[in-house]
Each structure stands twice: as structure tokens, then as C-alpha cells.
Design a protein that fits this description.
The chain is built from 2 helices and 17 strands. The chain starts with a strand and ends with a strand. The protein is mostly beta strands and 331 residues long. A hairpin with a 4-residue loop joins strand 5 and strand 6. Strands 1, 3, 4, 5, 6, 7, 8, 9, 10, 13 and 14 form an 11-stranded mixed β-sheet that branches.
């Protein structure tokens, strides 16, 4: 596959490695396939991210009311002030629980030749992608103990979904002249863990000292008709060459094998517009889909869209909302 390089000239990436979304919410600060947030290293696998694993999947019916709807309105907490009383179809995108049978459980796992002793902390479920992960705190690495060594998230089969450590390992970037050179070293060093050749696109956010941004945040993904696929990868590298965070979504089965080859957002625009007219009524004016990715809600594939919706306020002046919708595929 031919790779296309998108170097984002942005100092900060929003939406730290959260696994409930896959693409940028908006313009230059887009989280292009869930790159890692370099400003809060511990957020890669901390309580603010989204993970889950227990004996059974969480009961997502507590936060999803489909009612036969083909397009769902998602409460993602980003809506601004509005004159409308929204009735959300999805009221929670992350379900966090604690599996009491695992509390106090320790286990040892190896990654890149290093052993980590882990302690179970919590279980999370990402509603928009149906991802289930257990969150473990690293309490020992290579015989060293520390309060903030890092976290490892494990999938139900015990494989690593994401890891943050200080650092996981290091690469020699002293001779690197650009983010492209760093990316090449990362791909070479992680080739036995991640098959980078399968990705069509990659994104690089380079360090920016003026913005106190001291990391290379690199991500890889594929897309269909500009709709991002979430079986992606992301790596964070500090300016000394330390690999601080890795997320391997390619280890998750999102059910993409059933995606139509001719998937196109255009085919679903009438349904999206119909939903917006239902939300805003006669005040609705127009809309623009800013970004989209293929999600999986309760085993049903869908296109998750960030939308700018224009409407007329009570003074009949044009304004807009930034909302998130899920439109089910082939329904």
C-alpha cells in the first residue's frame, strides 16, 4: 500500500488515546486515529481513558436507547450552550466497573524483552467501539519499583492493548533530522509487534518547545472513502528517544470483515440530515460532517460522525452546534 504522509502542525493533540473514538474531532488539533496525548502521559491508561474487561460484557442498555433509530445522538460532553433540550440516544460512551474477583490480583507480562509486574485496578468498556479492556498498574519493571511507572491495558485474551512506561524502551534519535526519520526508527523497532505495512496513512505531530510539547506523537491507520478505520496504532516518543506510550488497536476485532467495499458516507447523508431535522425542527439550516470513523455499537457497525449543525436561534440568527452522531451501516 502507498502511504500518504500527513504531518500535523499542531502543538497539542486532543482526546488522549481514548478508545471510544478514532478520528479528529475538529481541525488542526485532530486526534487522527487516536494519537497519544503527550501532555498527560499517565492519561494513556489512567482512569480518564476508556477500558474494560470482566467475565461478561457490561450492560450497555443502561446508556443506549436505540428505539429502532437508524441514527443516534451521542452525549460526548462537548456540546456547547444551546436552546435545545437534547434527548440523547447514547448517554454514556464509557462504562467503568471494578471486577471484585480481580481486585488485588497481580500478574507478570512481558513486552519487548522486559517483564512487568502488574496490579489490577479497573475494567472499562468503550461503547462506541465495543472494546473491553482491563487496566493494570505497573508496580515493578526490571526489578525497579516506583509510584508512577505506568499502566498496561489488557484485552480479554490477555494480549496487550496499550502500554505506558517511563520509558518502555529507547531508540537512538540523535541523528534524526525530522519526524519522518523518527517514524522510520519506530517502525523498525516495533516491526515484530505491529505490522506497519498494512497501513495506508500515518500522522506525525512533532515537538514544539514554545507550546511545551516535548514528544513525537505518531499514528497509523487505514480508511474507506475518507472514513477512518479504528484498527490503528499509535506511539509516543520523547525528545530523548524514549518510547513512552504504545497503543495497538490492530489487536482488536471490530468486525470490519463485514464492511462493504463500496462504503461511502454520501450514502448515509440523507439519514444524517433527517436526524438533524428531527433534532432542530424548523430551526435547522444546514450541516457539515467534519470527521468520521467506523464504530461498532453492540456488535452493529456504524459510522460515527462529528457534525457542525447550523440552525437559527430565537433571534433568528444563524448559529451552530458541534454534535456527534452514529448512523448504522446497512440499516
Amino acid at each position: 500500500m502507498k502511504k500518504t504522509n500527513t504531518i500535523i502542525a499542531s502543538s497539542i493533540l486532543v482526546a488522549a488515546m481514548a478508545f471510544s473514538s478514532c478520528v479528529p474531532a475538529k481541525t488542526e488539533a485532530d486526534d487522527v486515529t487516536e494519537s497519544i496525548n503527550p501532555t498527560e502521559v499517565t492519561a494513556l491508561a489512567s482512569p480518564e481513558t476508556n477500558n474494560t474487561e470482566s467475565a461478561d460484557l457490561p450492560d450497555s442498555t443502561e446508556c443506549i436507547e436505540t428505539s429502532g433509530e437508524k441514527v443516534l445522538l451521542i452525549d460526548n460532553g462537548t456540546l456547547g450552550e444551546s436552546e435545545f433540550d437534547y434527548s440523547y440516544d447514547i448517554t454514556k460512551t464509557i462504562i467503568e466497573t471494578v471486577d471484585e474477583s480481580k481486585v488485588g490480583t497481580e500478574k507478570t507480562i512481558e513486552f519487548m524483552g522486559k517483564q512487568y509486574k502488574l496490579l489490577y485496578e479497573r475494567t472499562r468498556y468503550g461503547v462506541l467501539l465495543s472494546i473491553k479492556v482491563d487496566d493494570y498498574k505497573i508496580v515493578e519493571a526490571e526489578g525497579e519499583y516506583a509510584d508512577e511507572i505506568g499502566y498496561i491495558d489488557l484485552l480479554p485474551d490477555g494480549t496487550i492493548y496499550s502500554i505506558i512506561a517511563n520509558p518502555i524502551f529507547s531508540i537512538d534519535i540523535q541523528s534524526c533530522k525530522s519526524g519522518e526519520d523518527v517514524r522510520a526508527l519506530v517502525e523498525e523497532s516495533l516491526k515484530d509487534e505491529i505490522d506497519f505495512s498494512k497501513y495506508e496513512h500515518y500522522s506525525i505531530v512533532e515537538p514544539d518547545e514554545e507550546a511545551a510539547f516535548y514528544f513525537y506523537s505518531i499514528s497509523w491507520n487505514n480508511s474507506i472513502d475518507n472514513i477512518t478505520l479504528c484498527d490503528s496504532a499509535a506511539v509516543m516518543v520523547d525528545t530523548e528517544g524514549g518510547i513512552r506510550g504504545i497503543r495497538m488497536k490492530d489487536r482488536v476485532d471490530f468486525g470490519y470483515d463485514t464492511l462493504p467495499d463500496d462504503l461511502s458516507l454520501d450514502d448515509y447523508l440523507p439519514q444524517i440530515e433527517s436526524k438533524l431535522k428531527k433534532i432542530y425542527g424548523d430551526a435547522f439550516v444546514d450541516y457539515e460532517v467534519k470527521s468520521s470513523f467506523v464504530g461498532n455499537i453492540d456488535g452493529n457497525l456504524c459510522i460515527i460522525c462529528d457534525v457542525d449543525a447550523d440552525y437559527n436561534d430565537k433571534q433568528n440568527e444563524k448559529t451552530y452546534d458541534q454534535i456527534e452522531l452514529a448512523v448504522f451501516i446497512n440499516q
